[in-house]
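Quick one, probably user error.
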């Protein structure tokens, strides 16, 4: 598959998966409670997967989405956000160490 085609598919998937998340954020709380599981367990992981895939590649995207799902299932939303921050920091440290070793 052509890289530009793959990026276009990932971008449009990312944009379409945002719509239910925005509905969960800006909807009335009594109505949102009925379908909050879908954005939390389906659409946010799809957003993470497609976003990280465009940013850092497929392996990092799978790791990020799996980390999100595991922490949301075992803990809650905010620990999952912190796990994503820690994952991005770990990636940056890994890239810096790898660049220094290459010199």
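Nope, works fine. Designed sequence:
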């Amino acid at each position: 598959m052509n890289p530009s085609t793959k990026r276009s598919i990932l971008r449009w998937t990312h944009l379409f998966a945002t719509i239910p998340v925005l509905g969960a954020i800006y909807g009335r709380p009594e109505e949102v409670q009925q379908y909050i599981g879908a954005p939390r367990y389906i659409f946010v992981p799809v957003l993470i997967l497609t976003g990280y895939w465009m940013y850092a590649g497929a392996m990092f995207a799978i790791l990020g989405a799996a980390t999100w799902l595991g922490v949301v299932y075992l803990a809650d939303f905010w620990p999952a956000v912190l796990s994503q921050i820690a994952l991005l920091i770990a990636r940056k440290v890994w890239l810096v160490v790898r660049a220094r070793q290459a010199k």
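The chain has a mean pLDDT of 93.
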